[in-house]
Amino acid sequence: MSVWRKLVTAVKGGATETAQAVVDSQAIRILEQEIREAKEELRKSDHARTQILAKCKLSQQKIDSFNASIAEFETHARKAVDSDRQLALDCAQKVAELKAEREQEQSYLDQFKQSEKQLAGNIQQAKANLRRLEQQVDMVKATESVQKAQVAVSSRHMGANSKMKTATESLSRIQERQKLRNAELQAAEELASDESNDDLEKRLAAAGIKGGTTSADDELSRILGN
Predict the structure, then answer these.
(1) Which of 102, 135, 175, 202 could make a disulfide contact with 66, Cβ separation 3.0–4.6 Å?
(2) What is the pLDDT of residues 141-177, one digit of tens each?
(3) Does residue 37 form part of some domain?
């Protein structure tokens, strides 16, 4: 593969990754919007369930009322059977009508209860799924934030290591220059000390105190013992 083709492939790869990152970012926003809408729908579902429960309560109240009326007319029928059979039959007919109405109302109540039970199960399942989705989205967002922080820290750490290496190299060069300069200063001091000693020897010799050139007369006197 030529260098140009490799470059094009690299650029395409980078563009694909960037596009995917944009899509992923949009996906999170879409999910968050879907979650908000799902919560609103669940709120409506809870309200609908409340209405069904209210209907159940009203239906139960009607049934209780039918039961009370049935008990009342049964009592009337028993009391009237000896004195007025027709009145007793009318009371019995009323009881039959009330029981038919109670049975119809009971069927409504059973339907309401069944619907409420099914709706409650669906709502509970939907809420559980929604909580799970929220947790996953929160985890993805948290992980993304942590990884971004880790990348930032890693980049700064690499930069810091690079700077530290450069600083250490500079320090080593400074130390080497200082060692060289110190050696040069010591050498200069030694040279100055040697020059000072030579001058002192010359001065002593000139004064006849030390060293100097011995004259022939001095040497002859020494030999003759004078």
Answers:
(1) 102
(2) 888 888 888 877 766 666 666 666 777 777 788 888 8
(3) no
**What does the pLDDT look like over 34-50, one tens digit per residue?**
889 999 999 999 999 99
- pTM of this prediction exceeds 0.85: no
Does residue 13 belong to any structural domain of this protein?
no
Q: Which two tokens stand for residue 20?
A: 């995917």
Read off the tokens for 86: 């027709």
DSSP state of 81: T
Whether residue 55 contacts residue 139, with contact meaning beta carbons closer than 8 Å, is answered with no
Between CA 64 and CA 71 the distance in angstroms is 11
Angle at CA of residue 138, ends 137 and 140, nearest 5° = 65
What residue has token string 């000390």? 193
CA distance 103 to 139: 54
> Predicted confidence band at 127 (pLDDT cuts at 50, 70, 90)?
very high
Q: For 155, list phi and psi in degrees, rounded to 5.
A: -65, -45
How far is 105 from 63, CA to CA, in rounded Å?
7
Residue 215 lies in a domain: no
Whole-number Å distance between alpha carbons of 28 and 30: 5
